[in-house]
Amino acid sequence: MAPTVPLAVLALVALVAPGLGMAPGCDYPAHRWCSSRDTAVACQVESRCPSLPHPAAAPVQLSLYYESLCPACREFLVMKLFPTWLLLPEEMLNITLVPYGNAQERNVSGKLDFECQHGPEECLGNMMEACLMHEAKNFSTYFPVIFCLESGSSVTQNLEACLQIYAPELDSGRITACVQGDTGVTLMHHNAQMTDALQPQHQYVPWITVNGKHTDELQAQAEASLLGLVCHLYQGEKPEACGGSKALKFPAGCRR
After folding, report:
1. Which domains does the chain have, with CATH numbers?
2. What is the pLDDT of residue 248?
3. DSSP letter string over 73-135?
4. Mean pLDDT on 35-56
5. Most buried by CB count within 10 Å: which residue of 9, 90, 139, 191?
6. Would you say 65 and 205 are in contact if contact means Cβ atoms under 8 Å apart?
7. What is the structure's pLDDT at 46?
8. For the packed helices 139-151 and 120-136, what is the interaxial angle rounded to 10 degrees?
9. Alpha carbons 15 and 120: distance in angstroms, whole number
């Protein structure tokens, strides 16, 4: 690694010997060489400009396809996904939640209906969380509420209490209206389409994709140490939270 040379030294070199060390195409005075990354690159002094901001790295994209009452889904969301999100800076991890899982969509007399693996209450839970996301829009607003629902005694009975704790600005009446109206059905149809479009098709839940891909290895790594996986994949500067993480065991997924 080249040693960092103070900008004042570079400027002195330029004044004493104007042509010394100046890259072809560098038409900037020495005091501006570190003023921007483009200028530093043009003058070939990028490694000697420690104050330059690092280029932003793309966040790791993680999508969780799950069911609201699946024990393994709840375990992963509560014990791995939510803590990892809390530990990492916002620009490092982008999460998409798709509550649907192994549900089945049916057309009954011209209207869409859904049958869920763990019964009607799970369908209600899936739709409640979909409507919550629709109404809140901001991930940092709705994810703590979903964490509260999934970690509590009842996914479907604690909406009002979870909203009061984590998002009192949200109107529970609007969420209820969404669940009871056409919007909720539309949202669940969208989640059904997203789930059915998975390649490879999902065989169980929780089903995890990382940067748009699913493999057995990625799934196993995410379930064993999600924090470690995200830290490994992220190409930007690593935060202190990436110093290490312990693996946890989870119950078997809910197979179709």
Report:
1. 60-237 (3.40.30.10)
2. 40
3. HHHHIIIIIHHHHHHS-GGGEEEEEEETTT-EEEEETTEEEEE-TT-HHHHHHHHHHHHHHHH
4. 77
5. 191
6. yes
7. 77
8. 160
9. 78
